[in-house]
Specification:
Uridine Diphospho-n-acetylenolpyruvylglucosamine Reductase, domain 3, alpha/beta, 6-stranded mixed β-sheet, 329 residues, 4-stranded antiparallel β-sheet, 2 domains, elongated, Rossmann fold
Length: 329
């Protein structure tokens, strides 16, 4: 991925290669002297990301390619080995991680992140770069819209979260493919990406093209932009909710119903979700938050709200508390 010399003229990298490099440089500017990892599947997105990261770190610490083999199909081990060989050729360290297979997409994703996080911690990597693109972001927003789970879900994937960074969220998938083609990098085409049994594949090959035909070809760009704007809004609301929660909680951990009722709905629902999650030690659903909200704002003697982990939310006079199911209100 270098420029070519023609006589006295010097041509720079292909525009797609240059775009990926710029995105990576920007994403790692604060950790340019620290070791990083790249999650590598062998697909165009992660391959272009790895090549650009190796270029950015060519005079710095070694880049580590983290290849999670989930044994999805008979060739998965061979695919992982080819990805490792390519990473070595590009100048990176290559590590194949044995990740447990899973029955569904969400469980598979959690398993990948688990092994990536463990490997990064063991090697003291400053960050793990992920190859999600603008197209992936648009798909994620549509999935959140279908779930009906609010602004945080519609905000899509974060550019940074903990150890993970996504440098390519502003670039379309076509750019990573063009970068690999221009650099002569082999790309693995995962058959699962075209398997309509998977929800994300149906979004990619059916739903988004239909939306583009109906609403215009910029629909993916606009969905990703909406995610970025909503993420800023959601981040602010979450900060405000954390402060409001601290003012509504008694010393014993119970929630002051009158104080919570004074909050505007956008803050109150976040306060209740955070409080329930922390008190029960498990995630809560929209229906559960809605029922707890009714305990606060529409109290008429209704029964307790069941949560996960063998707990329930009760109201006693002006206090809302999470108690074990064995306790009586």
């Amino acid at each position: 991925m270098v420029g070519t010399h023609r006589g006295d003229a010097v041509s720079g990298p292909h525009p797609a290669v240059a775009a990926v490099r710029r995105a990576v440089r920007h994403a790692v500017a604060d950790i340019a002297r620290e070791p990083v990892g790249v999650a590598l599947s062998g697909g165009a997105d992660s391959t272009a990301l790895l090549a650009a990261t190796c270029f950015a770190y060519r005079r710095g610490p070694a880049v580590t390619a983290l290849i999670a083999d989930q044994h999805w199909h008979d060739e998965s081990t061979a695919v992982a080995e080819r990805a490792a060989a390519l990473a070595t050729k590009l100048g990176a360290n290559a590590i194949v991680l044995d990740a447990p297979s899973a029955r569904d997409e969400a469980a598979a994703r959690q398993a990948r992140y688990a092994v990536l996080g463990t490997a990064a911690a063991e090697r003291d990597l400053a960050a793990v770069l992920l190859g999600h693109t603008r197209d992936d972001q648009a798909e994620t927003v549509l999935l959140g819209l279908a779930r009906g789970s609010g602004a945080r879900s519609l905000a899509g994937m974060a550019r940074r979260r903990g150890r993970y960074r996504r440098p390519l969220l502003d670039l379309p998938r076509s750019t990573t493919r063009a970068a690999c083609t221009a650099a002569g990098l082999p790309v693995y085409e995962d058959p699962a990406n075209g398997d309509l049994a998977f929800v994300r594949s149906r979004l990619r090959h059916a739903a988004l093209p239909a939306l583009a035909d109906a609403l215009g070809r910029d629909v993916g760009v606009n969905l990703a932009r909406s995610a970025r704007l909503l993420r800023d809004d959601a981040d602010l609301l979450d900060e405000l909710a954390a402060s409001a929660l601290a003012e509504c909680v008694h010393a014993n951990g119970a929630l002051d119903a009158a104080a919570a009722a004074q909050l505007v709905p956008a803050l109150r629902r976040r306060v209740l979700r955070r409080w329930c999650t922390e008190a029960a030690g498990a995630a809560v659903s929209f229906a559960q938050v809605d029922a707890v909200d009714a305990l606060v704002t529409d109290w008429h003697g209704q029964g307790a709200v069941s949560l996960a982990g063998g707990t329930r939310v009760t109201r006693d006079r002006g206090s809302i508390a999470v108690v074990p199911v064995t306790d009586r209100p």
